[in-house]
Every structure is written in C-alpha cells, then in structure tokens.
Amino acid sequence: MRQETTATPVEEQSADIIVAGAGSTGLAAALAFAKAGVRVKLIGRIPPPLPGRTVALFEASLRFLDQLGALDRVRALGCRIEAIRMIDDTDQLLPVPELALRASEVGLPALGVNISNDELVGVLLDLARSCSLIDFIDAEIVDYDFSDRAVAFLRDGQRIVARLIVAADGRTSRARSVAGIDVKEWTYPQVALTMMLRHEFPHNFQSTEYHTRSGPFTLVPLPATDAAPHRSSLVWLMNVDDARRRLAKPREELEFEIEDYAKSEFGLMKIDSDIGQFRMGGMQVSQHARGRLALAGETCHVFPPIGAQGLNLSLRDVADLEDCLASVDLANDRELSRALARYDRHRRADIGFRTHGVDILNRSLIIPYLPVDLFRGASFIAVAALGPLRRAIIREGILPHLALPRLMRQPTAASEMALRRTA
Ligand SMILES: Cc1cc2nc3c(=O)[nH]c(=O)nc-3n(C[C@H](O)[C@H](O)[C@H](O)COP(=O)(O)OP(=O)(O)OC[C@H]3O[C@@H](n4cnc5c(N)ncnc54)[C@H](O)[C@@H]3O)c2cc1C
Questions:
Q1: From atom 50 of ligand 1, which residue's Cα is the shortest distance away?
Q2: Ligand 1 within 6 A of 194 CB?
Q3: pTM higher than 0.85
Q4: Which pLDDT score is estimated for 369?
Q5: Which of 52, 179, 217, 398 would bridge with 273, disulfide CB 3.0–4.6 Å?
Q6: Domain presence at residue 207
C-alpha cells in the first residue's frame, strides 16, 4: 500500500477523494478521478459473484469505458446488441405490433454490449489495481465523520481523511445514512430471476423483450463459446409465488417453460448457470450530495431492470460528477459546494426521469386496467409507425441528450466510423 504521508500516525492516511464501495460504480468512479490526476482511496470489499447476472451497457457508457481504457476488454468479453425487439404479450384488446429499435436507424453499428456483471467488475478491478493514483483497500467502512473534514473509519481501526467522499456503497449506503440524507423506498410485488441460457437458434445480436402481465421477460445476447454457439442471458420478472414455484421445479420443466415464454423463437433452451433471484424495489433520495459527500450508483437510485437503465445511469452519475468537479479546488469549501449543488441539480433531472419512466412502464404491465392498456398499446403503434419518434427514443435510451458529461461525448472509434459513413 502506498504511504500518503509520513508525519501522520500509521492509522490515519489521507487522499484527495475516498470512493466508498468497489462495485461497478465505485470502480468506475475511482478510475475516472484518477484519470483526472486525483489521488483516490478506493475502499470496499470485492463484490461476491452475481449468479446469471449480465449488464447491457449502451453507447454513452461505452464511450465512458473507452475513456477509462476498459472498452476493448469489455467488447472482447461481451456481445454486441444491434437491436432491441419489444413484443407485447399481455393479450390486451388492441392488436399491438412488434416494435424494433435498431442501431442502424441512428447510424451506429450497435446499441451497446451485454457483459456478465462479474466480468465487468473483473475488468475494472484489474485497471484500478494497476493505476498508480488509486490505492485500493479491500476493507469495510464502519463509520464516517462529515462534521469538519470527510473521514472514513475502517473496521480494522484505520482512519482515512479526504477532501471529498464519493459514496458508491450500494442501496443500503452507510455513508448516505450518516450524512442524514433521506430516502424514499417502495417495493413491487415482483422478483427477477436471472440466468444464462444456451439455445438452438441464433439471437442475431438482438435483445428480445416480451412484455407480460407479470413484467418483462428479456433475453439479451451473449457471446458464443466453443461448446455453445447460441447463448443469451435472461431477466425474468414475475410475482413472488411464481418465482418460488419455478425455482422448485426440475430444471427440464423450467427450461420448457422458458422456451414457451419465448414462443420457441430460439428453439430448445438449456440453463447454463446458477439462477439468481432479486426482489424488485425502488428508491429515490432527497439529495445527491451534502457537505463533503456525493452519492453515485445504487446509493441514490434503484428501480427494476426494465430497459437496462440502472448501471448506465450510475456511470452517468460518475461522469457527471467528474465533469462538475473538473478544475474545482477540493480544499475550497465554496467551490466544492457550488460544484456539488450543480451535480445535485443534474442528477435530480436524469434520475427522476428514468425512475418514473421505469415505474410507469412496469405498473402499466402488472396492473390490468383497460385505459392504461390502450394507452400503452397506442404508444407502441405510434413508435412503430413514426420513424422520427422511434429514432428520438433510441437516442434517448443509449445517448441521452440532456447535458451529456464530457467523458461521454467522444464517440468510440467504431461509432465514429459508422457515423461518418452515414453523415
Ligand atoms: C436483475 C438485474 C438486471 C440488471 N441489468 C442491468 C442492465 O442490463 N443494464 C444496466 O445498466 N443495469 C442493470 N442492472 C442494474 C445494475 O446491475 C446495478 O445498477 C449495479 O450493479 C449497481 O452497482 P453499484 O456499484 O452502484 O452497487 P453495488 O453493486 O451494490 O456495489 C456496492 C458495493 O459497495 C460495497 N459496500 C457496501 N457497504 C460498504 C461498506 N460499509 N464499506 C465498504 N464497501 C461497502 C459492497 O460490498 C458492494 O461491492 C440490473 C439490476 C438487476 C437487479
């Protein structure tokens, strides 16, 4: 471990910024600040493996990962997503057409990349470990003090002092509660089952969402392996009793039910991983920063995995915070508080929009109410029929237009070539 100072007692160390939590958000934050030349203490336990969990990362996130030096490995380990198909499977009154959102419509080679959560964390962790400005401390933070300086107290007795703490310690964030930031939480009567699948027919680099009465059933493409040329990950939202029933079933029966849900479009299905189960809930915070604390990732937003927005939003938190703090003297209270107020304003708009959008779509599926069904159906019909509307929705999903942070503005080499060809 790098010693920051020699004059202070062994148990007290200092840094410009402490990043609390070493999940995807915390790792990305440490790398982004280090890229800006800031000394970072990244403190957190390495996340345990998440069974069957993958994450679809879209254009803005890929640009950001490119800036962090992670994109080549993410692309090599993941699978590109060229289109998202949405199929209404609610048996509602209005005949709703299938909706396809294609990267080619907005001049891009792909909408994004789907990669296993564990592999993404592995890529970011390797980069963080090899970065001289990041001191990674694999430890738990048990308490904080924000009264004067920002101080993190570790379980082993160490005390780390910094100008700013970036909390990326997840939905039950200790940093957020010590700082006294209020949260609003709610639950949905749903569980997400996650798993990797092998199937008979190709996915054609398309993600397929079947919108059912219990929530979306979403297949997202995975790369081929020697043993399995056609693979996808599944995120399947359902009510709690159905989840219990399905988990107790013999594997073959569950595989048959999955094939049935996918209308046999992918042929025979084989489960190729452990099955993860995640209770669905939502959370919003009253403030995204207070004093010398800034929140990022699931410390400040939680919603169901619909439209693959969660980590994409978290990476925008990080890129936005880095942007707001650019050229700010962290030792200057006024400058820092002005920068964090700006961060709070930006995040309130972006996070509020995504949280409410996902909430409305989810409730419109699980609450069978004719006017809502008709509205959802009519929206599908309009988006399927109107090219400009469809292209605006695709762009908003993968590259939101509102104040895109600097680290997300530079197209990747592949996108730039494709955009030039279509210009
Ligand atoms: C089923 C499912 C599918 C999803 N699919 C997608 C998708 O396709 N695309 C997408 O963008 N998003 C997706 N998401 C959302 C995404 O996975 C999450 O937003 C993301 O993993 C959150 O990362 P995080 O780093 O913010 O939080 P976490 O992964 O929870 O990391 C928090 C870290 O902080 C550490 N920590 C906690 N307390 C302390 C402490 N006191 N001291 C030190 N460390 C601490 C923890 O150990 C942990 O490592 C999905 C979510 C679910 C549930």
A1: 305
A2: yes
A3: yes
A4: 77
A5: 52
A6: no
Question: How far is Cα 267 from Cα 54, in angstroms, rounded to an integer?
Answer: 22
Q: Domain limits at 114?
A: 12-185+280-422
Q: State whether the beta carbon of 233 lies less than 6 angstroms from ligand 1.
A: no
Say which DSSP state 44 is in.
-
Query: What separation in Å is there between the alpha carbon of 78 and the centre of ligand 1?
Result: 18
Q: Locate 334 and state its tokens.
A: 């006024």
Strand bridging mode 40-43 / 12-20:
parallel
Question: What's the CA-to-centroid distance between 310 and ligand 1, angstroms?
Answer: 9
Rg (alpha carbons) of the chain, rounded to whole number: 22
- Out of 24, 137, 278, mutate this one to test ligand 1's pocket (max ligand atoms within 8 Å of CB): namely 24
Does residue 252 sit within a domain? Answer: no
Block mean pLDDT (10 aa), the chain, length 423? 42 91 98 96 93 95 97 97 93 82 94 97 97 97 92 95 97 97 96 97 97 93 96 97 97 97 96 96 97 97 92 97 95 95 95 92 83 83 89 89 87 79 68
Could you count the other beta carbons within 10 Å of the beta carbon of residue 249? 12
Q: Measured in angstroms, how far is the CA atom of residue 58 from the centroid of ligand 1?
A: 17
Q: How many CA atoms lie within 13 A of 414 on its CB side?
A: 16
- Determine the pLDDT at residue 6: 43
3 within some domain: no
Which residue, by CA, sits nearest to atom 15 of ligand 1? 310
Query: How many domains, in total, are found in the chain?
Result: 1
